[in-house]
Amino acid sequence: MLIPRRAALACLASAPLARPALAQSQPQPGWSPTQPVRAVCGSSPGSITDLIARVVQPGLAQRLGQTVVVDNRPGAGGNIAGEFLARAAPDGHTIMVVSGGIMTLNPHLYREMPFNPARDIKLVSRITAGGFLLAVPASIGVTDVDGLIAHLRRKGEAANYGSPGIGFAMHVGTEVFLNATGLKVTHVPYRGSAAAINALLAGEVDFLFDSRGPLLSGLQSGKLRVIANGGTLPDLVYPDLPRLSDRFPDVVVQSWTAIAAPGGIPDPILRRLDDAMRATLQDPEVVERLRAIGNGPAYLGPEALAAFFAEERARAARGVELARITPQ
């Protein structure tokens, strides 16, 4: 019996970790939570961020010596959850599994933000990072980036690309890619990845960036081809796929997740949360489950993550400027 992919992922994320692996990790000395820890998530159950939260949930609970509860608060592109975190007491009992878009793109997409991500939220540990894949219809005969550039130049004003919507990382990142290549291509926004990929399959658009999961059916059927990795890390399934940043240093089209806390959180609590997340991401069971949903661990601690965040903010600002997005 075939199980729908979303249902399979949900089952995977909710399955308990092997107890022996967890039993080896005991709560560390220092600060410990005195009540259940609320892990806020800005998207609905079954979303990729929610699945990641539920994969790391048992390991965090084990290492913190306290229950960790995932609290889904979707809406406003994650701003509802972000505001909840920003207003929470900085005592370690409220954290958030935050996506890169909330932290870097939302300030450019919303005229009135209920919080300042750079001031009111403290990033603790990066959990995952992965590049969006540059995909083309197999029917156009393009096998690499040079071939795509030549194809788009031949089409001229008729060339276009798809995205899941205005302001998504895939839209903003594509504009950075086009600026780096000097190409003029029309953006065709759709309502979600499924609609954009259907348009790619039908030949209505020439290329797009998206995650491996939504592209999988087209890749397996041979109707789609991926020709480049938009991220800075090798892809889990296509480790030899060329990275655009190796050729165009400014072109980085990727997603990431991190554990975050309210701004002003004391350093000892931040370090304790970071220690718990770092150890959790070293657990082979967690590694396997993250890879199964297409997001291998990509740990960064507070200092390295702060530098990474600064780079991502600059990229987002540049991409939004090139895309000429007006805040709503």
TrEMBL record:
Q: Which SUPFAM superfamilies does UniProt cross-reference here?
A: Periplasmic binding protein-like II
* UniProt keywords, alphabetically: Signal
Which parts form a coiled-coil structure per UniProt? none
Tell me the leader sequence span. 1-23
Keyword Translocase in the entry? The reply is: no
Q: What is this protein called?
A: Tripartite tricarboxylate transporter substrate binding protein
As for family, the record states:
Belongs to the UPF0065 (bug) family.
